[in-house]
């Protein structure tokens, strides 16, 4: 059953506040013609570099690509990757509230690509300063009244140290809260409207399950223990399942061809956020987010889904 898609005008009238860990996705593309004489590894002759928004920045880009206005609140360093992020965000019409941390190395994920295959990924990162995170909390409180919904993109990099207080402020202001979670302690997400773990992330918190009845019991206990409105479990080739106060709703996978799952979770939660902000019901928003996830895994690297693709 297809779900109704809001008009472009309805989506454009809404604004989503995206908060979380950002990163610069750097791709080095090159030719592979020989094996190194120094070690049994391929030699890549780099021919071009590609830069993309990653982490919470990719989430904000996915929101914006659907036509909904997006504001990104995050911490970056005072370095070249931060300059590249600022440029990319400006080019893509994403409003930014960036807090600078001179001690922070802006997160970079460097992927070396040879013959259209990822050969290695190298990460550069450290955690932000606590004083800057306090400034980020102040900025969050200032931004809340301007937005219809809050989306937290948690990559476990330290940028959401104050998320319990942020959720409390958002709920007090009557704003729905969506969270892409990370780690083994979901108590910090208490009060969220929806959390969107994948299978591995959920198992890290609840333990592995034996069949659907066991999964239902574990998710029910989790919802009760931490006080979240709904859990949307993304299940790769099995689609996604929504657990909320009305029961369980399952949507089968829609992917025609899986090329690259990088950033698929970003697309799912961004689509969900844009649609919920525009007044779409949770079951219908889930169906459309599932469709968006099926489209984006057919693309290379961190990617987005347009309104026209979602409408097709």
Automatic annotation (TrEMBL):
> Which top-rank group of organisms is this from?
Bacteria
The family database entries (CDD domains) matched by this protein are listed as: RfaE_like
Pfam families xref list: PfkB (PF00294)
Q: Which GO terms describe its molecular function?
A: kinase activity
* SUPFAM superfamilies reported for this sequence: Ribokinase-like
Limits of the Carbohydrate kinase PfkB domain: 14-304
Which of UniProt's keywords are assigned here?
A: Kinase, Transferase
What InterPro entries is this protein classified in? Carboh/pur_kinase_PfkB_CS, PfkB_dom, RfaE_dom_I, Ribokinase-like
What protein name applies here?
D-glycero-beta-D-manno-heptose-7-phosphate kinase
């Amino acid at each position: 059953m297809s779900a109704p898609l809001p008009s472009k005008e309805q989506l454009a009238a809404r604004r989503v506040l995206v908060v979380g860990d950002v990163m610069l996705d750097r791709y080095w593309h090159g030719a592979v013609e020989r094996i190194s004489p120094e070690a049994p590894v391929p030699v890549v002759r780099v021919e071009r570099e590609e830069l993309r928004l990653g982490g919470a920045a990719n989430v904000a880009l996915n929101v914006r690509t659907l036509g909904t206005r997006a504001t990104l609140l995050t911490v970056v360093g005072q370095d070249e990757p931060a300059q590249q992020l600022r440029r990319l965000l400006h080019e893509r019409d994403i409003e930014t509230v960036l807090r600078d941390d001179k001690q922070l190395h802006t997160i970079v994920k460097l992927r070396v690509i040879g013959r259209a295959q990822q050969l290695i990924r190298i990460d550069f990162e450290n955690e932000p300063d606590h004083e800057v995170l306090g400034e980020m909390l102040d900025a969050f409180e200032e931004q809340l009244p301007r937005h219809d919904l809050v989306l937290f993109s948690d990559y476990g990099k330290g940028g959401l140290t104050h998320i319990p207080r942020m959720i409390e402020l958002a709920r007090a202001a009557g704003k729905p809260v969506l969270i892409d979670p990370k780690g083994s302690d979901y108590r910090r997400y208490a009060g969220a409207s929806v959390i969107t773990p994948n299978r591995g992330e959920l198992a890290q918190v609840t333990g592995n399950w034996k069949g659907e009845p066991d999964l239902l019991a574990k998710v029910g206990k989790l919802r009760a223990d931490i006080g979240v409105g709904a859990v949307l479990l993304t299940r790769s080739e099995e689609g996604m399942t929504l657990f909320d106060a009305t029961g369980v709703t399952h949507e089968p996978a829609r992917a025609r061809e899986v090329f690259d799952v990088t950033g698929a979770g970003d697309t799912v939660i961004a689509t969900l956020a844009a649609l919920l902000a525009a007044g779409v019901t949770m079951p219908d928003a889930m169906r459309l987010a599932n469709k968006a996830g099926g489209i984006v895994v057919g693309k290379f690297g961190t990617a987005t889904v347009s309104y026209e693709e979602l409408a097709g």
